[in-house]
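Lab notebook: predicted structure, single chain.

Context: the supervisor wants predicted structures on file for every construct in the current expression panel, including those that have not yet been purified. This is the next one on the list. No modifications to the sequence; it matches the entry in the shared construct table.
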Amino acid sequence: MESASLNRHQFALQGLSSNGKYSLDKTASALHQLKVGIWMYFILLIFEGGLRKWVLPGLSTPLLLVRDPIALWLVIKAWTMGVLKPNSYLTITVVVIVAGIFTAMIFGHGNLLVALYGARIFLIHFPLVFIVGRVFTHEDVVKMGKAAIWISIPMTVLVALQFYSPQSAWVNRGVGGDMEGAGFNGGALGYYRPPGTFSFTNGNVLFYSFITPFLFYFWVTPKSINRILLLTATVCLFAAIPLSISRSLFFQAVISLFFLAVGTARKPKFMGKLIGAVIVGVIAFIILSQATFFKTILEVFSVRYEGANESEGGLQGVFLGRYLGSVIDVIKPTLPFFGYGLGLGTSVGATILNGKSGLGISEDEWGRLFGELGLFMGGTIIFVRLKLYVKLLSAAYKRLAGGDLLAWMLASFAMPNTPLGQWAQPAGLGFGVLITALMLASLRNAKQVGQNKLLA
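Prediction complete. Output recorded below exactly as produced.
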């Protein structure tokens, strides 16, 4: 098996080993190590909160950065073996962020630790997009999607236990063993939003949003996954949407469904499988809705949905308020040209500088970037992220003509997370970087390992 795999990747491996630092065998071994590191990053992303809440609560603060050493190692390893190479997206970002460290010290808050904490988002984690994109292939992306789908089954059981248990229960233990609980009191009818294995509820929402495009993809390509697993995980998703008491997860499922509809319209051969999947989904929902526990969940979700829509002015108010409102609040004549300093918009940075937790500038990403870096540098980072997503989206759409739906479906989750995702928060950063990287990797096949023609 190893020999066959080596033969299949031989051309790409020879290209990577041509710099003389690695032989062909060592290059294959190094690529394997990089893949292992990427999988460790993925696993820690999902279970990092569990470590901080249940396993090692006394180390909850340093465990906040548990993925950083892996990300740093991946960057160094990939750079030394020639996997990570300069491109316009990476070069511009590094230049702006390094400049941002100096402007934070000279014109901003003046705290080097806070500036470095903010800089690590783009200097350590963002390069993973291009590392994963060159090391992983379409097949690797499918494997990771299957792994996430398997995890969703016990995750849903945990989320249900958290939903129905009091905040004092062990399953609801907070970060650092906090006995007040990890649930967010933003639900309805006395129920809290469950966090799953994550430190905060947004991680739980992001996880199910992450598996949604994979589930839809497997429904139209069912030969690549076990049918019982697919059906079980789909039921879990239907249950998780109201259990999460989150409109964001509901909206994300709708977005992914829209992408699926566009994809099947582009390639009509998928239409029959899509209709079958919809029928199965309707039947599953009808069966679930007959259960008493599910009726309670739906009632709580309905009350939360209606109440939040009224307070934020409906769907239009939600999007305008969340994605543009904070930007408008930050962009004022008094905003310094270089911003208030890199890292201030993170919870950790705000705690160090202000002595209290919470985001120091804005709860939303564009507002944070403008506030930290100013209009010019912050706008440059936003432009890079937007351009990267548009580039990947265009390539994914072209793949539809050949019947490859994977990258296009992943684009549905990347849409709010690559250009707009709240990367100051650890789970948001992890899922935002990961989905962008997997979208890039899904555009490659086994013979293209180590190549990066799309972003050259």
